[in-house]
UniProtKB/TrEMBL annotation:
<keyword id="KW-0663">Pyridoxal phosphate</keyword>
<dbReference type="InterPro" id="IPR004450">
    <property type="entry name" value="Thr_synthase-like"/>
</dbReference>
<keyword id="KW-0456">Lyase</keyword>
<protein>
    <recommendedName>
        <fullName>Threonine synthase</fullName>
        <ecNumber>4.2.3.1</ecNumber>
    </recommendedName>
</protein>
<dbReference type="InterPro" id="IPR051166">
    <property type="entry name" value="Threonine_Synthase"/>
</dbReference>
<dbReference type="Pfam" id="PF14821">
    <property type="entry name" value="Thr_synth_N"/>
</dbReference>
<dbReference type="InterPro" id="IPR029144">
    <property type="entry name" value="Thr_synth_N"/>
</dbReference>
<feature type="domain" description="Threonine synthase N-terminal">
    <location>
        <begin position="2"/>
        <end position="80"/>
    </location>
</feature>
<dbReference type="Pfam" id="PF24857">
    <property type="entry name" value="THR4_C"/>
</dbReference>
<dbReference type="InterPro" id="IPR000634">
    <property type="entry name" value="Ser/Thr_deHydtase_PyrdxlP-BS"/>
</dbReference>
<dbReference type="InterPro" id="IPR037158">
    <property type="entry name" value="Thr_synth_N_sf"/>
</dbReference>
<keyword id="KW-0028">Amino-acid biosynthesis</keyword>
<dbReference type="InterPro" id="IPR036052">
    <property type="entry name" value="TrpB-like_PALP_sf"/>
</dbReference>
<comment type="similarity">
    <text>Belongs to the threonine synthase family.</text>
</comment>
<comment type="pathway">
    <text>Amino-acid biosynthesis.</text>
</comment>
<dbReference type="GO" id="GO:0004795">
    <property type="term" value="F:threonine synthase activity"/>
</dbReference>
Length: 467
């Protein structure tokens, strides 16, 4: 399997190369040269398999020669073993005759990011073993990627991780899950800016030849292809439990950086019968505007009770545009340069029609979100987190054929956002015992202005330069 940049002007890499590179050198994102497919029989054969074995079958076509099947199986068994608090790893909960929740928060940091990052940590370890080179991972987080990546990489040799989060715009639980990890290779930076500022700084560092050349940079955000590959697995695992390949299934995905829902798109391209993918946004609704009206233009980020989705520039949308535009890297490079200058892009009619075949979208405001939390609580006794509530509200308001089961991705544990859950339902969710002493632990974090000079200066003082 070979990986090409969405902008068509970066070295073509194998899976190992794409995983360690993170972002492509031309500013684009790595994607497989062609989507592999699983036949109906192969999909039917997934029924009854463990999560780890499903992961092997779904991801094997993507790893090419970088790992043998046995090596991949070993990594999946380690990633999806005791670090998840549920034997099914990603269990399904039925809400009513057609609505389901896919609980993705049973990993160590209580959000869906663990599903991919527990594997990515092991992939880094596997690919770096025997190399003398030190890797500097840089990441941007609105709360969940940061904690999951830090958990996966803390204490590993050969890697330092520098994680940027927007100061004051993540929940206390999210912040503490990052800042109380005191391993010497973990560096937390709170920037005076938004998640978008943090993400732009990370991309600028990859695109600065002097800086990127001095340190071996790598990425843990969903700009790294391996992140998305690991997320494709739970779409297969879930749909098969609900009757695929005989029965199509719809998924509603609370969306920010367009990574999780793009993984659903990949599953569909691989042959999974996906009836619809619902892109559910909060009031930071650039993706809803893009899909419903072709208007992909940024505004000011509004702080909400769903801070992990307070995002304007959705990195992975570029991967979808690449496919919608017939994989013309040069044309997409021009389009993205235009967007980076004007902060706005109009989708063509053909792009919109192409997207509409699979995607639909909804913008859910605070009232809709709180209503969904109350509905789930009253109906089933389930407390759901505010991000999940955005997905559930969208799933319930959209017109999807009645015979199709609709699965909302429950992306975080409600205890990560206890204040919003309590306001909506009157119940305060308790932190699971595995993170119980979080509020007694010492914190370590530095605060910096959101400037390239400040952040690169900070990293350069602490990271290991190439020999
Ligand atoms: C809890 C939660 N839900 C939803 C999202 C949105 O996911 P994505 O950025 O992959 O669209 C995020 C952040 O990524 C998140 O942390
Ligand atoms: N909500 C995210 C934002 C970054 O998303 P990623 O999937 O690209 O890593 C977070 O929790 O940090």
């Amino acid at each position: 399997m070979r990986y090409v940049s969405t902008r068509g002007n970066a070295p073509v890499l194998d899976f190992e190369g794409a995983t360690l590179a993170g972002l492509a050198a031309d500013g684009g994102l790595y994607v497989p040269e062609a989507w592999p497919t699983l036949s109906r029989e192969q999909i039917a054969d997934l029924a009854g398999l463990s999560y780890a074995e499903t992961a092997v079958r779904v991801m094997l076509p993507f790893v090419g020669d970088s790992l043998s099947e046995d090596e991949l199986r070993d990594l999946c068994e380690r990633a999806y073993g005791t670090r998840f608090a549920h034997a099914a790893v990603t269990p399904l909960v039925q809400l009513d005759h057609r609505h389901w929740l896919l609980e993705l928060f049973h990993g160590p940091t209580l959000a869906f990011k663990d599903v991919a990052l527990q594997l990515l940590g092991l992939l880094f370890e596997r690919f770096l073993t025997g190399r003398s080179e030190h890797v500097t991972v840089i990441g941007a987080t609105s709360g969940d990627t940061g904690s999951a990546a830090i958990d996966a990489l803390a204490g590993r040799t050969g890697v330092d991780i520098f994680m940027l989060h927007p100061h004051g715009r993540v929940s206390d639980v999210q912040r503490r899950q990052m800042t109380t990890v005191l391993a010497p290779n973990v560096h937390n930076i709170a920037i005076d800016g938004s998640f978008d500022d943090a993400q732009a700084l990370v991309k600028a560092m990859f695109n600065a030849p002097d800086f990127a050349g001095r340190f071996h940079l790598s990425a843990v955000n969903s700009i790294n292809w391996a992140r998305l590959m690991a997320q494709v697995v739970y779409y297969f695992y879930t749909a098969v439990r609900l009757g695929a390949p005989e029965r199509p299934v719809a998924f509603s995905v609370p969306t920010g950086n367009f990574g999780d829902v793009f993984a659903g798109y990949v599953a569909q391209r691989m042959g999974l019968p996906v009836a619809k993918l619902v892109v559910a946004t909060n009031v930071n609704d650039i993706l809803h505007r893009a899909l419903s009206a072709g208007d992909y233009s940024t505004g000011t980020v509004t702080a909400t009770d769903t801070p992990s989705m307070d995002i304007q520039v959705s990195s992975n949308f570029e991967r979808l545009l690449h496919d919608l535009g017939g994989r013309d890297g040069a044309a997409l490079a021009l389009q993205m340069q235009g967007f980076e200058t004007s902060r706005a892009m109009q989708l063509s009619g053909a792009h919109r029609d192409g997207a509409a075949a699979l995607f639909t979208s909804a913008r859910i405001d605070a009232g809709g979100m709180m209503g969904a939390m109350r509905w789930a609580c009253e109906r089933t006794g389930e407390l759901i987190d505010p991000h999940t509530a955005i997905g559930l509200a969208a799933a319930r308001e959209l017109d999807i054929a009645p015979e199709v089961p609709v699965v909302t991705l429950a992306t975080a544990h409600p205890a990560k956002f206890p204040d919003a859950v309590e306001r909506a339902t009157g119940h305060r969710p308790a932190l699971p015992a595995r993170v119980g002493d979080l509020f007694e632990r010492e914190e370590r974090c530095d605060r910096l202005p959101a400037t390239f000079e400040a952040v690169t200066g900070y990293i350069a003082e602490r990271a290991v330069a190439r020999a």
